[in-house]
Amino acid sequence: MGETEYRNVRLTEDAYQRLKMRKQEGESFSDTVARIAGERSLLDLAGILSDDEADAMRDAIREREEQSRDRLDRLSDEMDS
Fold this sequence. Notes:
Layout: H1 13-22, H2 29-37, H3 51-80
């Protein structure tokens, strides 16, 4: 394996604290930066669904929310009885 190169990076105190909060146990700061830099952005998902697929997904989510609300209302009514 080749020799590892190191770079110095200047961070504001705020940026350092935010990075430190994202650091997982046993992880170096380099590991943390590599993990975060490899994360996907929600923008990467733009255009992944057709308009019809997106509409169907929205409808399914709305239906599930209504079912959840109905269930909570029934449970609340049962508790009040």
